[in-house]
Amino acid sequence: MRKLSNGTCMIYYELQEGDMLPHRALTAKMKNAGKSGIVVVYDPFRQITAIFRAGVSSLKGGVPSPLSDNRWQAFVKALQTREGTDRWYAIVQEDGTMSNFVLNGTSYFVGVPMTDLIEEDYANILEAIRD
To answer: Fewer CB within 10 A of the terminal residue: the chain, N end or C end?
Structure first.
């Protein structure tokens, strides 16, 4: 787990053959450590990258909450600004709530241009975001 200067953390994980849903263990690790940030999972076999909002930023009513909405939305917007909305897809509900993950490609649609970002780029984007 990499701690950034703005108080957030990042885990970058390259999927290994046979891995199943590693983001669940990695987001739990961040939450259990009392940290908030992102988990980046890169699948080199399918050339898909998924980024998950993770951890604990505060206790709302005694319940741990992940990276703040403002930081998460700013992070996703920065990804889309840098590479385009055609590369990074986030689900937004009718009420404006954004999903806790963003995708570059899927198993069903690999026609999405692959991201050019590397581990350091994700860290730099997240680190630049302040509340």
So the answer is: C
